[in-house]
Amino acid sequence: MATQIHQSHEVGPPIAAGLPMPQFRKITVEPLSGACGCEIGGVDLREPLQPDVLAEIMLAFEQFLVIVFRDQDLTPEQHKTFSRHFGELTELPQAPTYGGDRLMQEVRREAWEAVNVVPSFEHFHTDSPFLAQPPKAIVMRALDCPQWGGDTAFSNACLVYEHLSDGLKAVIDTLQVVYSGKEIWSRNEKLPPDKRLRLRESHDFTEDQLESIHPAVRVHPETGRRSLFATSAYFQRFVGWSEEESRALLTYLQGLAQHLHYHCRVKWRKNTLIVWDNRFTLHRGVHDFKNERRHLIRTTVIGERPLGVADLTAR
Predict the structure, then answer these.
(1) How far apart are CA 165 and CA 201, in angstroms?
(2) Has residue 15 been placed in a domain?
(3) Tens digit of pLDDT for each residue in 211-260?
């Protein structure tokens, strides 16, 4: 009689956003995809948050990089109060302000307007990488949105990096990127009026504050996880590389971020609020709608100076 051999197949904890799934007891957490993003329930952001609830929200933010809350009818002050849990708020030189408040920005496209009036960057990007301390997080809420379309998509830049070959990682670990926001206004003025982006008309930033050099691979200051930080928005070149060489490598890296298995996508509804980690994700608006209004308001949380791989070895 044949002897049956039973093999043991051990299975670890479920993986979400590339990491083991934590346990949440004070909030509900529903992942949006296997790559990034989750929807959080059981929280009213108009009310003060208990420490244990806030701790779980922050854990979800660190794990999923994109967190979504539905039905949050906040005043601008409540919006800013919640945003400050993630850090200090900052204005941006290029983003139009909302209601005259320098600490709130808006992304708006009227029903009769062309796609161009919103600086949507029809590719995945991070916001304002030209700043010395690019934003840590964006906290955005929908006032008006299309019935269909107008979603925001996100790509997990940690997963993009982690799936690279060891050889390519060794190359880009050493690279630095020159980012510049100096010319966005002059380029905009050269376009026909109906093709121009909606930009903030004036700001108090100096020319030196509109250009920075950052590592192409960014390291999470708490977890040490590495992420691709090379994005085409405001990109000039890799330090020590020609513009042609730089664009060739950037095009390849940017193409990887388009792969669906790195993505989640959020459908906006009125009073939906999203917080995303601008350091370790790429995002883009999906302008697949016409004849409807899309009006989003946001705060921007200032980040730390980006840490590169060299900073780890220097510690």
Answers:
(1) 44
(2) no
(3) 999 999 999 999 999 999 999 989 999 999 999 999 999 999 999 999 99
How many angstroms separate the CA atoms of 96 and 184, rounded?
A: 14
In contact, 66 and 22? CB cutoff 8 Å: no
| Number of structural domains found in the chain | 1
Residue type, 135: P
Is residue 18 in a domain?
no
Question: What is the span of the domain harbouring residue 118?
Answer: 25-314
Please tell me what DSSP assigns to residue 307: P
Within-domain flag for 1: no
Task: Match 């999470």 to its residue by tokens.
Answer: 220
**CA–CA dist 290, 135 (Å, integer):** 30
Which two structure tokens, joined as six digits, stand for 176? 């630095």
Give how far Cα 153 sits from Cα of 120, 278, 284, Å: 12, 13, 5
CATH number of the domain to which 269 belongs? 3.60.130.10
Amino acid at 220: H
CA dihedral angle for residue 99, residue 100, residue 103, residue 104, rounded to 10 degrees = 30
Longest Cα separation, the chain: 86
Do residues 140 and 66 make contact, with C-beta atoms less than 8 angstroms apart? no
pLDDT (tens digit per residue) in 85-128: 999 999 988 888 999 999 999 998 899 987 655 544 568 999 99
Are the CB atoms for 17 and 223 separated by under 8 Å? no
Cβ(297)–Cβ(104) under 8 Å? yes
Cβ(153)–Cβ(265) below 8 Å: yes
Which candidate, 236, 280, 230, places its Cα nearest to that of 256?
230
194 within domain boundaries: yes
Question: Rounded to whole angstroms, how far apart are CA atoms 93 and 203?
Answer: 5
Six token digits for residue 136? 């840590």
Model-wide pTM > 0.85: yes
